[in-house]
Amino acid sequence: MTTQGKHIAVAGATGAVGREILACLEQRNFPVAKLTLLASARSVGKTLPFRGEEIPVQELTKDSFAGVDIALFSAGGGTSKEFAPAAAAAGAIVIDNSSAFRMDPEVPLVIPEVNPADVRSIPKGIIANPNCTTIITLMGLTPLHREFGLRNIIASSYQAVSGSGAQGIAELESQVQAIVAGQPVATNVYPHQIAFNVIPHVDVFEANGYTREEMKMQNEGRKILHLDTMRASVTCVRVPVYRSHSVAVTATFSRPVDVERARQCIDAAPGVRVCDDREKALYPTPLDTSEKDDCLVGRIRRDLVSDNGLTFWVVGDQVRKGAALNAVQIAEIL
Question: What is the pLDDT of residues 151-162, one digit of tens each?
Answer without folding.
Answer: 999 999 999 999
